[in-house]
TrEMBL record:
GO BP terms in the entry: proteolysis
InterPro entries: Carboxypeptidase_A_C_sf (IPR027461), Class_I_gatase-like (IPR029062), LdcA_N (IPR027478), Peptidase_S66_N (IPR040449), Peptidase_S66C (IPR040921), S66_fam (IPR003507)
Residue intervals of the LD-carboxypeptidase C-terminal domain: 214-332
Pfam families according to UniProt: Peptidase_S66, Peptidase_S66C
Protein name: LD-carboxypeptidase
Keyword Protease in record: yes
Residue stretches making up the LD-carboxypeptidase N-terminal domain: 13-135
Family under the similarity heading: Belongs to the peptidase S66 family.
Species this protein is from: Candidatus Limivivens intestinipullorum
GO molecular function, one term: serine-type peptidase activity
Record's keyword terms, sorted: Carboxypeptidase, Hydrolase, Protease, Serine protease
Length: 350
């Protein structure tokens, strides 16, 4: 696995919009302020041509222009890291317009984003053996003040911190809107991990949870992963074989999927052979948190199919669409420690 160089003290931060751009509020003002904050931290900003665009369908511009921007921005020697402006809906359509040969030949660069950005954070390690970071997009860095998770992500980009813990509270309802574009995360809900161990279909009592496991981290937003599955961009079987000695830790979360769609997504990944050599599953809070349909809740939707692997299934983690989110090094080696309601992630980046 190739690990990019960390952001230096006066390193340049690049921005691109392969999914949504920051063309409407509250994202435009938040993105502007994020650039001001980064500049105060000593970083120049290098913006791609689509950062403020909203001409596309589900993305910032046409698939051709978005593919060109992402290729150019990733391969550019101007910036040290590249942060996506936002998530969206149809980033998958730009993949045909990426210059894969240029990207493969380019110096590895940290790419940061989540949600629709799974279309690149996932493909960098599985296609090119290059680690990426699954974490907040550009506008989140414009909040005042920064939530500890935002500081953690910046510290990871800088290489000053490689061990992270889950956060005590999470955001059920955001207060960020057009009138309050710089509003920080509105964290009100106590974090509570739900852990299934040893193949049990019953959650382990939180007071008895104390476990460790390690492996190669891979995953992202299930909404996007099931679209990639079975396409010419699906090189997961080859990736699993390359890193089977490390074992695999899957991190998964969802945005638009209801509990039945989550169950179907897990079934599809399982039957594609994606869960070979698995050492554990890290499952983020789904955007449909607390939903139950016809007796199926978010826990049975996942663990009902994964219990057979008899590995830890840790649910309601700080990953994904319900903030805050721990930054995840996709493709990297990680050591996971779960004790009670605290998850600690340590990355071995070398």
């Amino acid at each position: 696995m190739k690990y990019p160089v960390f952001l230096k003290e006066a390193g340049v931060i690049g921005f691109a919009a392969p999914s949504f751009g920051c063309n409407i509020e509250p994202y435009r003002t938040a993105f502007d302020h994020a650039q001001e904050i980064f500049q105060k931290l000593g970083h120049a900003c290098d913006l791609g041509p689509n950062c403020y665009e909203g001409k596309g369908t589900g993305i910032s511009n046409t698939p051709e222009k978005c593919g060109q921007e992402l290729t150019d921005s990733y391969c550019s020697e101007k910036s040290s890291v590249l942060i996506s402006c936002g998530g969206g809906e149809l980033m998958c359509e730009i993949l045909d317009y990426l210059d894969m040969d240029r990207i493969k030949a380019a110096a590895p660069k940290w790419y940061l984003g989540y949600s629709d950005n799974t279309n690149f954070t996932f493909l960098l390690p599985t296609l090119f053996d290059t680690a990426s970071i699954y974490g907040p997009c550009a506008a989140a860095f414009g909040m005042e003040p920064w939530h500890p998770s935002i500081q953690d992500t910046y510290d990871l980009l800088r290489g000053t911190k490689t061990t992270f813990q889950s956060y005590p509270l999470w955001e059920k309802e955001s207060l960020k809107n057009e009138e309050n574009p710089l509003e920080p995360y509105h964290v009100t809900e106590p974090g509570r991990l739900v852990c299934f161990t040893g193949g049990s279909e019953e959650a382990t009592d939180e007071n008895e949870v104390d476990l460790e496991f390690s492996g190669r981290l891979i995953g992202g937003c299930m909404d996007c992963l099931v679209n990639l599955l079975g396409t010419n961009f699906d090189r997961v079987p080859d990736f699993l074989e390359r890193y089977k000695e490390d074992g695999i830790i899957w991190f998964l979360e969802s945005c638009d999927l209801n509990v039945f769609a989550i169950r179907r997504a897990v079934w599809q990944m399982e039957h594609a052979g994606w869960f070979q050599y698995v050492k554990g599953f890290l499952i983020g809070r789904p955007y449909c948190f607390g939903q139950e349909l016809m007796g199926l809740d978010q826990y049975a939707a996942v663990n009902g199919l994964l219990a057979k692997y008899q590995v830890p299934v840790i649910m309601d983690l700080d990953i994904g669409h319900l903030a805050p989110m721990m930054p995840i090094v996709c493709g990297g080696l990680g050591k996971v420690r779960v004790k009670g309601n605290v998850c600690t992630m340590k990355y071995e980046i070398f």
